[in-house]
Amino acid sequence: MFTGIVEEIGRVESIKKGPKSLAITIRGNKIFSDLKIGDSVAVNGVCLTATTIGNGVFTADVMPESIKMTTFTNLKVHQPVNLERAMLANGRFGGHIVAGHVDGTGRIINREQTDNAIIFTVEAPPKSVMDYVIYKGGSITIDGISLTIMRRTDSSFSVSIIPHTLGETILGSAHIGTEVNLETDIAGRYIRHFMNLGSEPTENKPKKSMQSLLVENGFI
Questions:
Q1: For residues 166 and 7, is the Cβ–Cβ distance under 8 A?
Q2: Strand, coil or helix: what is 208?
Q3: Cα–Cα dist 197/201, whole Å
């Protein structure tokens, strides 16, 4: 589990491509104070496992599903990335609960200065992301950064970024057209799941109508 408080900006040292997977090596600094093989690291909001560690770099394997769901399809050598170690049980909870399981990607469609803040507007998939975007004050993770939603439409949402966050994360260099990883608030996802338990389709089970569910459970 993570909190969305980025610890440092790292850099991609190398990328080894498999048929559908990646093995990436990332250089950092602060996270190596206690990083061990097998530890989890959020890289641009994607939870990865450190498989080798040495000389200020760690290597992680990226599964095909993670590549499909994230901006890692466009990952490049020397690219800066946000890094956060998994939360310690005795640590401060500065952001919100972040699983490191990206719901989908979005695209920055506007960046505007308002006094000391930069307001980013992100276009996002309507079902996997926007259904869980709550106005006003809901939490969302952009490239691993815990942020608060200030406004939303049917297809986009906006967040306001303070100078400190811009300076400590890769959002400082983000521009219109930049693709970002998005993870919605996990609490909202669980609530929706349990409220729709039995009514949502799975791979081998078609979606049931509300009427059929009421009949099955003896309500009508």
A1: no
A2: coil
A3: 10
Q: What is the CA radius of gyration of the chain?
A: 19
Distance CA 95, CA 10 (A): 20
Structure tokens at 160: 């306001």
Helix (H) or strand (E) holding 64: helix 64-69
Dig out the tokens for 38 from the structure: 């097998």
Amino acid identity at 140: I
Residue range 41-65: mean pLDDT, rounded: 97
Q: Given the DSSP bridges, would you call strands 117-123 and 156-161 parallel, antiparallel or unpaired? A: antiparallel
H or E element in which residue 26 lies: strand 22-27
pTM here?
0.85
Q: pLDDT tens digit string along 101-155?
A: 999 999 999 999 999 999 999 999 888 899 899 888 899 999 999 999 999 999 9
C-alpha 60, offset from chain centre? 17
Locate 210 and state its tokens. 């509300």
